[in-house]
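Appendix B. One record, verbatim.
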Amino acid sequence: MDKNAILQRQHKILCNLSALPQKILSLHDHNNITELVLYSLCGEHCFNLNKAAYFVDNPDFNCLQGIAGFSRDQKNLGQPDVLQQADYAGEQLRIDPFNKKVRSMSRCSLKNGVREELAMAQDIAKDLNIANPQVCVWPMKHDNHGLLIFEQQKGEVENYPQDYLVNGCSLLGFCPIY
C-alpha cells in the first residue's frame, strides 16, 4: 500500500471514530449499543477486522465477562453503517451465534495474577476460533479493563497507529453493559 493510500485509510478511520460518540448518544435507549459500536469499529470503513471479541475485566470481583462479539461471517446487514438501522441490525447482532458465544464466556480476571494475561487471551482466542489473535487492553472506569481479542482480515496489514485502535475500543466503555 502506498503512502497516500495509507493516509486516506487513516483519515477514513479517524472520520468514523470521531462520529461514533454522537451516534452512541443518539442510541441511548437501545439495548444493543455495544454490539452496534463493535460492529462499526470492525467494519471495512474502520479497522476492517475479521473477528473480534470484547470483554470487560473486573479485578475486584475476579471476573472477565464477554460483552459482545463480531464475526465477518455475520449476516449482511445491508449497509456499512449499522447504526443507521439500529433496531434491525441490533436484533440481528444479538442473535448471532458468535456474539452469543462471546457473551456466554466468563473467566477469572486477567489481572488476578494467576496466569499471564497473554496466555489467557490466547486460550480465549482458541475457544472462539480466532486465528492469529491480537490483543488490545485499555483502562475503563471503576478500575476495570477492556479487552479486545481480534483477528485481522486475511492479508490485511495494520496501516494505522496503535492508539487509533485503543481510542476506538475506549468508546466501547461509554456503552451500557447488559
